[in-house]
Amino acid sequence: MMSVLPNASLLRLLLLSMTTMILMQTADGFMSGAPMSSIQKVPPYHHQILRQQPITKQHDRSVMTLKAAGSVTPSSISTALKSALHGDINFVLTTLLIVSASGIAMEQNTTFGKALSAPLVTMLISLVLANVGIIPFKSPVYAFINKYLVPLAVPLFLFDSDIRRVVKDSGSLLMCFMVGAVSTIIGTIATFSLIPLRTLGQDGWKVACALNSRHIGGAINFVAVADTLNIDGSVVSAAIAADNVVVALYFAMLFYLAKNEHATISSTSEEETLNLPSLGEDVVVANGETPNPITTSSIAYSIASASCLVTIGEMLTRAICPSLSSMVITSILTVLAATATPKWFRKLHSSGSAIGILFLQLFFAASGASGSLLLVLSRAPSLLAFSMMQIAIHFVFLLVIGRGIFRLNPNELYLASNANVGGPTTAAAMAQAKEWNHLVLPGLLVGVFGYATATALSLSLGPLLTGIAA
Question: pTM score, two decimals?
Answer without folding.
Answer: 0.74
